[in-house]
Design goal:
single chain; elongated; Immunoglobulin-like
């Protein structure tokens, strides 16, 4: 089964929510650490990250934005997104930037992992955050590429601070139905 995972840190505002613009990435944390000489000293002992809340959304093909959904029900062919709201606090690297990344996992109704992707953000996860908070990073799943059958699934994002060592996860369950 082929999966296409997308992630983003670029932000737009929609219906009062800050929503990111989709970007596909492939860089690994090891490559990032070497390239940016991230510190590994005692003052960077792991601290936990906090996710204020998470929401499911659908990618609008005409605007390329993520629209929040009130019910976790999608149609085959939709791009399903899990948006993390106000994640932090992250630590800065020696280059003055925050370095973070995300992993995504998809499970079927029996709890079996049917797809996963590590390091969704790559270089896009190296930026200066306001107040050490990532406002709305997200991961998305294109059900056209995946060819998921109708049923119940869960999507999980784990976001991690590559400098401070903290991490946090959120998951949501959704139903996928056939097109009408």
């Amino acid at each position: 089964m082929k999966f296409q995972f997308l992630a983003a840190t670029s932000l737009l505002t929609f219906m009062g929510l800050t929503i990111p613009v989709s970007l596909a990435q492939t860089t690994t944390p090891d490559t990032i650490a070497k390239r940016h000489h991230l510190p590994a000293s005692a003052d960077n002992k792991a601290r936990s990250l906090r996710i204020e809340k998470s929401i499911l959304g659908i990618k609008n093909p005409s605007t390329d934005k993520i629209d929040p959904v009130s019910e976790p029900v999608f149609t085959q062919g939709d791009v399903v997104a899990l948006v993390l709201i106000n994640v932090g606090k992250f630590r800065k690297g020696s280059d003055g930037l925050h370095h973070f990344d995300m992993d995504m996992e998809i499970k079927n109704s029996r709890g079996r992992v049917i797809g996963s992707k590590r390091n969704l953000l790559g270089e896009e996860g190296h930026l200066l955050l306001t107040d050490d908070i990532a406002a709305s990073p997200y991961g998305s799943l294109d059900t056209n590429v995946v060819n998921l059958q109708p049923g119940r699934y869960s999507i999980k994002l784990t976001i991690y601070d590559q400098v401070g060592g903290g991490r946090a996860s959120s998951s949501k369950t959704f139903t996928l139905r056939e097109p009408s």
